[in-house]
Structures are given as structure tokens and as C-alpha cells.
Amino acid sequence: MTDRFVVIYGDPGLGVHNAGQLFEMSAKTHEREIRARTFPGVPELSGSNVELYHVSSVPELVADIDAGNVAYLAYFGHSWAWDDVYFTIFRWRIFRTSEGTGKLYIGERAVPGSNLGETRNATTAAVADLPQGKFSRPTNLSGVSGGINTRKAQIRLFGCRGGYGSNPMAALLAHHLKVEVYGCENSGGSLFTQDPRLGRGQRAVTQSDIEFKAFNDSADTWLVPINGVPRFKMF
Amino acid sequence: MGRIALLFLVGLELLSPGVALVEGAGSLCIAPIEAPRGGEKSLANPSGGNAARAYSVQIDGRSSIAVAADHGTLVEALDLDKSHTVVIYADGVRKETLRLRFGEHRAQCLWFNALYETWSLTPRAGMGKFCPCEPQR
To answer: Is residue A188 packed enough to be buried (19+ CB in 10 Å), middle (13-18) or exposed (0-12)?
Structure first.
């Protein structure tokens, strides 16, 4: 069976959190970039298929990877990593009272599995609920110059704080699924850009990027952290 | 052509008494906050489980302003040329400090993201209906 590259995007969100079509546009741009090999760090496609899906819950995500042989999984959508909480005296951290944790906020309906988190809850599926063994083993590929490259399966999270803090979603996924997972370690939220240099992490965000609203529906779009240069961290 | 357009804009400002350019003052709209709700936090329930019951905002050491759940609060007459210190209190405990600089946007919005429990300053023009404020009477 051919290895699969799976790109998924979550619900836009409601009210002030509504990202409109921008997750979908970013996911479609990423699909094109996988084919064109223009996004740094993504495994080489080398004849594999790219599949694009909209998901509104963890069960839908599981259905999309359940056929196995996933060489690459990219998620576009709402996410966060909560800060550790400390007992403080006069703003001095004395000891940690609780550890922060990462979450994907995939679906906008209050149904089981609309979130993915560390522990199971009414609307949250646990990372442990994701099936193991669905990702492809390291594969030898012929390189462009004729050499042999080894392609390892990878997950990449495009959303707020995917790799931030002591216990982000990227760490939880890497630990459970035993694959390399990349998430941004920037501390802030995210924005969308139609500038390829910013989208590919080649420059820092400016105030005009933050204020940009005139999105062209047919232009390439990227989701990046709102502060600094996008920094993907591997777990 | 550009010079004509610029003159036209300046003319409009001069003909509009009370606009911020004449007064040289900026404003900050403190957007209404989504009250904490029970249940688990999700896109369908962004404020689910939020711990803080009441937020207040202090600007440049002035009196605290309670953040309302049902309406925005407009703070006017802020010096456009100065940087302002915005301190946010959650249930009376200092939570966050932001620096407000107006730049080219003289109407700014302070808003709370109930999903991620973060505060942000954003030009008000980009916030639309999510930052509703009427002038104080």
C-alpha cells in the first residue's frame, strides 16, 4: 500500500473565534506545498498520495488515519497549550501547583470528541484513544540526486501553541504514537498571512501582518504564530 | 493626485468637529466579557470552566473599571503620543499588564478571548460587532 499524506482542518469556530474559511484555505495551500516541496521540513512526497479532509471531531480524525500507512499528518485548526500554574508570593514562583497541557479544539459542536486532550472528558477524547500503528515505518527513498534518503513518518500541528510549554499537544502525540511531531513553540496565538516568506517561517510577524484583513479567497494562505518568527519544535 | 486626495482628507477632518484628529486623543473600548459557564471548555462552550468571576481594568494607575458582561466600556481622552499601561485584574488579583500604543489607530479595543483566557489589544476597526462601545454620558 502506498504511503499516505493526510492534511486535515478543523471547524472554523463560533463568534469571535470564527476563522471563516482560513483553516481550509491554509490546509489547501499546504497540500499544494507538499506537492511542490516548498514547505521546509515536510517529508518528501515521492509518489505518495495527498488526502485533504475536514474534520469536526476526533472520531472523524481517527477514521481518516485508520486505513494506516500515514507518512505525514498535518492539522490546521484551533489549539492551545495551557501554562503551568504556580503558587506565588509577591509574584515569585514558589512551586508548581498544576502542569499545563495541550488541546486541539477541533469541532464547534458540543459532542463527544470535539476536543483532543490529555485526558478523556465529556467533549474531549484522550490522545490515548488514537490508534497506534497507523503511521508508516521509515522508508528508503531515491533522492533527487540519486542518493538514498530515509523518510520518517511525521505529524505537524498548525495552530496556536502546538509545541509550547511543558506538555503541549505535540509532546502528547509523539509520546503516544511514537512518531516525530512538530508544533510551534511560540507563546502567543496565531494569524493568517498571504505572504509566502512569513508563511514559510523566513521572517518575523510585523504589526501590519497582525492588522491585515484583506484576504484574497483564491491566494495561498498560511497559518503562523502571531509573535516573532514561527519556530517549529520537534517532539 | 495624491496631494489633492490628502488635502481632501484634511478638509474633511477640519469640517468634522469633535473627531479625534482635532482633539488629539485616542479611545479604548473594553469589550464585554463572556461570563464563565459550567461544563467543559470547547469551541461550543468557550468560557466553560473559566475560573475568574470578575475582571477589572486599570489604565495608567487611574481608578479601576469593571469589565461588563453585557456592554462595552469606552475610555476616552487618552494621549495619542504616549504609551499607556493597561493592568488587568482577575477577581482582584493582578493578572496581566499590556502596553497600549495607538500608532495610526486612534480607536483600540481591549478584549478577552474566553477560549484561551488571554487579553489582547487590537485596532477597534477590525473587531466589528465584537467590540461594541457607546460614548460615556
So the answer is: middle
B38 half-sphere exposure, CB direction, 13 A CA radius: 0
Chain B residues in contact with A213 (beta carbon < 8 A): 126
Write the pLDDT tens digit of every residue in A82-129.
988 888 887 788 888 878 899 999 999 999 999 999 999 999 999 999
Tell me the C-alpha distance between B32 and B78, whole Å: 20
Q: How does pLDDT run across B77-107, given as a tens digit for each residue? A: 999 999 999 999 999 999 999 999 998 899 9
Residue A231's alpha-carbon distances to A104, A155, A158, A205, in angstroms, are 19, 15, 11, 12
Residues of chain A contacting residue B105, judged by C-beta atoms under 8 Å apart: 211
C-alpha B63/C-alpha A20 separation (Å) is 38
A89–chain B Cβ distance below 8 A for any pair: no
Three cell numbers written together for A9: 482542518
Q: Is any Cβ of chain A less than 8 angstroms from the Cβ of B115?
A: yes
Q: Could you tell me if B45 lies within 8 Å of chain A, comparing CB atoms?
A: yes
Prediction ipTM score: 0.89
Give the DSSP letter string of A57-75. Answer: SHHHHHHHHTT--EEEEEE
SS percent in chain A: helix, strand, coil, step 5: 20, 30, 50
